[in-house]
Each structure stands twice: as C-alpha cells, then as structure tokens.
Design goal:
Strand content of chain A: 15-25%
Oligomer: homodimer
Order of helices and strands of chain A: EHEEEEEHEHEHEHEHEEEHEHEEHH
CATH architecture of the largest domain in chain A: 2-Layer Sandwich
CATH class of the largest domain in chain A: Alpha Beta
Shape of chain A: globular
Radius of gyration of chain A: 20 Å
Helix content of chain A: 25-40%
Largest sheet of chain A: 6 strands, parallel
Strand order of the largest sheet of chain A: 5-2-1-6-7-8
Structural class of chain A: alpha/beta
C-alpha cells in the first residue's frame, strides 16, 4: 500500500460518510485519491475534500480497482454485498456496519483497546457498535487492572445513530410541535419531539433484548477477549442530535474505589474526565459533540453493592466521531503497511 | 372533618398546583370550599374550579383557619415555614415537598403500597419524590412476593420536575436553537435544547450522589419498610416535557423470571403493562403524559446476572400526576375521617 493510499468511502453522503471526510482532513490523514461512493440516487452529487471537488459515483462491484482502503458506512446489507468485491480488488475494508463484527475472521477494533488485532485481518476490519465503543473505551483501563465481571448500562442515544434522516426528523418534528402542527413520524417508529423511546431495533424473542443491546453484549466480550463478562443493557433513543450518553454501573473482581477509577482513567487514551461535583458539571451531549474523547464523570461508589466491588459513572461521546468515523480512521492510520512506512 | 372539606392549595400557580385542581375535578373529589394560595406576587390572579372563579390569595400564617386539608407544593422552604401553621389550625397537610419525608413522625405514602400508614399521621403526610414513586409503584408487587435486595435505576426525567419555568425554558430554548438564536439558560444550570444533563441538585461530597438520587435511595427504604434494600441510582434530566422514564434492574432474594414479573404486575394497582415486543411498543413519555398509571415494559431477564435472580424493565409515569398531584389527592381520598363517612 502506498503512503498516499487511494481511499474509497461507501456511503459518502450519509451522516458518518461526511465525518469520514472531515476526520481524515482534521487528522492530516494522507490520501492519494478519494473515491466518493453512494447509491445511484446520489451519483453526480459534488463534495469537497481538501479544496478539490469530488463527484459522487455509484457504488458497484467494480468500484474498488486500485483502492487501498475502503471505508464502509452504508448499512450492513451494502457491506455484505460490496465489501467482498473490495477485498478481492486488494483493498482493506474498514466496515462501520454490524455485518461482520461477530465473524471470527474479522477483527473488531477499538484502537485504544485492541489495536494489536488489526494485523489479524483478512481484508475486513470491523468498527464496533457506537454504544459499545462509548462504554468500552472508559471501562478498558479499569478492566485491565481489576477485571470487570458485570456491567449494567442504560443508554441515552442520539438521533445520529439512525442517520441524517433521523436527525432531520428530530428537528422538523420538534419545529412542527412548537408551531402547533402534527408531524407523522416517517423515519422513526415513534414521535420524536420531546419524547424518547426504546431503541427501535428488533427484539430477540428469546432474550427480550433488542438488536442494539445484543450488539453491546456480544461485542464487549469479543473486544475485551473475555467470554465471561456479563453485560445487561437498556438502549433508549432520546431527543438529542449527535452524542450518546450512558449511565454505567460495573462490578470488579476485587474491591474498587472511585479514587482508583479516577486514577485509572486520568490520561487514559480516548478518555477525558469531566467530573466537577462542586460546579455540578458532568458529561453532556453538547460538550461531547465534535469532541474526539469519551467524556467521563459522576464517578462514585455504587451504593447498591455494599461489598465495595462496584462503581457507577456517566459518560458521553460523539456518536459520529468516536462512535463511528473517528474509530474507523484511527484503524486506517494503524494499518500495517502504513505503520512500516 | 366534613364530607365536603375545605381544601387549601399552597403553590396553586405552579405546575403541580394546577394538577391538584385538575385531579380533584377529574376524580370527583368533594370540596366544600377551595382556597387558592400562592406567593404575594401571584395574589389576585384568578382561576376556575368547577365553574367557579377563585381568586388567588397570598399564603400567610393565617391562611388555614377552617381548612381541613392543605395540599402543599411550593418547595420545601415554604412547606417548612407554613405547614406548622396549617397543622395548628387543624388541617391535615399533604406535602409534595421533601421537607418532612424522612421525619420519623411523618408517613411517606404511596397509596398503592402503604395506605395503611396514613392513619399514623400527626398532621402531616408526605408525598414521595417523583422519581421514587415511578420506580416503587411497579417494584412493590414484586417485592411483596420475592423480596428485592438490590435495585439499579437510571432516570430520564422531564422538565416538569423543575417546575413550569423549566418547562418553558425547554420550549423556548429549543425554539431559539431551531431559529439559529442563542438562548442563555435562566432556570436550568445547563443548555436544555436537544441536550441532557445530570440532575442539577447538589452533590453529597461524601457519596457523590446528588440530592435527587439520595431521596430515591432513602425513600425506597422508608416506603418499603426495608432498611436493607440497596439502591443505586443515576438521575438525569432529558429534554422531555412532563413524564419521567426509568430503566430499572432489580435483584430478588429468590430466582425470578420475566413471566413471573408480568404476572405480578398484571392488574397491580397503578400499573399498566405496555410491553409489545412485536410492535416494538414500550413505555414512552408521550403515552404516560396525562395517564394515571405507571407504564411498564421491556420486562426481561437481566443477562448480567447469570443466577437468574435479576430482571430489567423500563417504566414511564406522568411526573405531575402519579409523581405528585395524583398521589397527593389519592392520600386525601383516604384520610380516615373521609373513609368513615
């Protein structure tokens, strides 16, 4: 692979697609040529990357000749259909969808946790689910020192996780309600203005957990390489635009104090403490938006566990950045060929 | 006390004050005379109760002559200052503030749980915190059968809990943001439009829990009359107008299944199951708004507890109704003198 790789983005017109471009630009990621790919309906649209106008092309099986790195964020159906073509053409696929995450041949990577797994790839590297990334980045520095046995997570997930159309629906349905108008939901299953609802992925009839929750449970085990970590999670969509929050309670094998957690997280990669009790200032979506770090605060002993093995905290992260595009570009930066350059 | 008691409302111009009136009206609560009390700045305002115009009077130490029942919802400072006067005048105070909740001489009552404690009152009966009521109403039918040892709650609390001005701030700051205008927060500590934040009550420096969370922890023990129930709770304010939601995970002394929980809650007083996995339809603030019941759904085994002693669920309740005004009027309906009538 060249030092200036040819990069293709599949799903370039989506919410994450736009952040792929912005993140590569911001981080000075070297790109020889950018191929902007999307569905036929978006072909011909124009966008700008580093001052150059780029015309969006239709994503086809033949899109990947000469491509070194293919960033996919167009849903798992598109990833399943087109990433084999990209791999056959010699590209490394970094896939933001759920298509291959639990595939034993596909590394599932959060660089702050398991960058070492990148070298195992056979053409595809998967970016974890955004709710999983948001929880796992700040849990890892603790888990490394004092194994986490059990985690209970409640999410406060933004519209961005459901794409640009969902963000627009939140804005437009809220505007309608403020103007006394009725807005029938089009993208989301339920009214979104000043409302919240259980994540609208399908429910597993056996467990009662929805698709999003099931991803968090399984991906935590794979990324931590700990088949025994027990995760309970409730995923909820709230009327916030683009940063996810999570209330997390975790239980360690040995006793753990809030002071220890603060020590483990201070300076940990991808983590920023926002935990000012006097000013009542803690992680918020508006502060996480546009921020690369997972913000962590409300660190305190979990009073429901008198054994002193449990701590609670509240975290926030930009779903489109660390939850998606940033994590993907971080992986691209660590691809072996580039590291050797 | 007469069958048609003289009822005073202290804080009649607030969000809960308005719901006291609406709830008494809706439930056909017999009222001989209604005294509408508020601060001096609201005196002279007019409101309507059962077709009659009532003039708001300034709340003073002398407001309670002849009053049988005094409903207070004007903050704990006002309750502390004026309810002793009401009691001395012979009224029964039903107080929606936190002023007396943990007082050993004051019953803390959710009628569905401990109506029997009403008779212990010495002039004051306290209405629990709204987040506590929302969690405890659906936990009680389970706790009665299979003792709950541990509860972990994450709240999604509406603006209404911070009063009418907070609801207005949510609306107006959202309108401003949609119009591209800056809205400096006046009532809340943080920007509220499309944002969420940790409940802005003061943090206990010893535990790290905020005031709202501490209320839930202590009130659960008092209402369940179980000093050992261990509660961990994270209270979060979300951009929703008037119904609270909560993600609840609880651990019982003996194994418990989602089917058992569903059985215990079916037909339980104050509870309505909204748990349609096929339609992905679960409790939402917009459905809880104006509804007397606590809506309960997402009932499933907690996968983080392999022992099978834990279940998770998601609940929603109208903060101004069951979380405040309705619970108070239910207590008034059960006052001994009325029950004997």
């Amino acid at each position: 692979m060249s030092d200036d790789p040819i990069v293709a983005i599949a799903g370039v017109t989506g919410a994450v697609g736009a952040e792929f471009i912005a993140t590569m630009d911001k981080r000075g990621f070297r790109v020889g040529k950018l191929k902007a790919l999307a569905s036929a309906s978006s072909a011909g649209k124009r966008l700008t990357f580093r001052g150059q106008e780029i015309v969006v092309e239709e994503l086809t099986a033949d899109s990947f000749a000469d491509v070194d790195i293919a960033l996919f964020s167009a849903g798992s159906g598109i990833s399943r259909k087109f990433s084999p073509h990209a791999v056959r053409a010699g590209a490394v696929v970094i896939d933001n969808s759920s298509a291959f995450r639990m595939d034993g041949n596909v590394p599932l990577v959060i660089p702050e946790i398991n960058a070492n797994r990148i070298r195992d790839h056979r053409g595809i590297i998967a970016v974890p689910n955004c709710a999983a990334i948001t929880a796992l980045v700040p849990l890892w520095p603790i888990h490394k020192v004092n194994r986490i046995k059990r985690v209970i997570v409640s999410t406060y997930q933004a519209a961005s996780g459901a794409g640009t159309a969902a963000m627009e629906e939140l804005v437009e349905s809220t505007r309608a309600q403020l103007n006394g108008q009725v807005y029938p939901p089009k993208v989301m299953r339920h009214p979104y203005a000043f409302n919240l609802f259980s994540h609208d992925s399908a429910i597993d009839p056996e467990t009662g957990y929805n698709g999003e929750e099931t991803k968090v449970i399984h991906e935590a085990r794979k990324i931590f390489e700990d088949e025994k970590i027990a995760v309970g999670v409730t995923c909820v969509r709230v009327p916030v635009l683009r940063a996810h929050c999570e209330a997390i309670t975790f239980e360690c094998e040995r006793p753990i104090s809030p002071t220890q957690v603060r020590d483990f997280l201070t300076g940990a990669p991808g983590v920023r403490l926002v935990d000012d009790r006097t000013a009542n200032y803690f992680p918020m979506p508006i502060d996480a938006t546009g921020n690369d770090d997972v913000l962590v605060g409300r660190i305190r002993q979990d009073l429901s566990d008198p054994s002193g093995h449990s701590v609670s905290m509240f975290v926030a992260a930009d779903q489109l950045l660390k939850g998606a595009a940033l994590n993907a570009v971080q992986i691209a930066e660590l691809l072996p060929q580039r590291a050797m350059a």
